[in-house]
Amino acid sequence: MGDRIRIFAMFGVLGFAAGIIANFTAKYVIPWMTTLVFPAVGIEWALSGFAGAFLTILLVTVWAHVTSPSEG
Questions:
Q1: How far is residue 33's CA from residue 51's CA, in Å, rounded to a whole number?
Q2: What is the pLDDT of residues 28-48, one digit of tens each?
Q3: 5-9, 16-20, 32-36, 52-56: which has the minimum mean pLDDT?
Q4: What pLDDT score was predicted for residue 38?
Q5: Sign of torsion over alpha carbons 55, 58, 62, 68
Q6: φ and ψ at 16, to 5 degrees?
Q7: Could you tell me what percentage of the chain is helix, strand and coil, using 3-state DSSP and rounding each to the nearest 5?
Q8: Alpha carbons 45 and 49: distance in angstroms, whole number
Q9: Shortest CA distance to 20 belongs to which of 66, 67, 55?
Q10: What percent of the chain has pLDDT over 90?
């Protein structure tokens, strides 16, 4: 039972961190990229997709490392 609670808590912490990263990305990174990097092409949807893909890969990687099977 303790392992299950620890996994739920870890997903809660990861979700909290993902929310902070998503908020920062939405407020600062995407507007900066659309005004400076891609001024002629308004592709906010693509930037949002890349941010979502990055966050998903990051969360799955962290989850895979945290829940790796114990040796022995």
A1: 12
A2: 877 777 777 666 555 666 777
A3: 32-36
A4: 63
A5: positive
A6: -60, -45
A7: 80, 0, 20
A8: 6
A9: 55
A10: 0
**Cα–Cα distance for residue pair 26/72, rounded to 1 Å:** 44
Which pair of tokens denotes residue 62? 């962290």
In one-letter notation, the amino acid at residue 14 is: L
**For the chain, what's the residue count?**
72
Mean pLDDT of the chain: 78
Two structure tokens written together for 6: 């620890």
Provide the token pair at 64. Answer: 């895979």
Q: Which amino acid is at 4?
A: R
Residue 70 clears pLDDT 70, i.e. is over it: no
Q: What is the dihedral of CA 65, 67, 70, 71, to 10 degrees?
A: -30
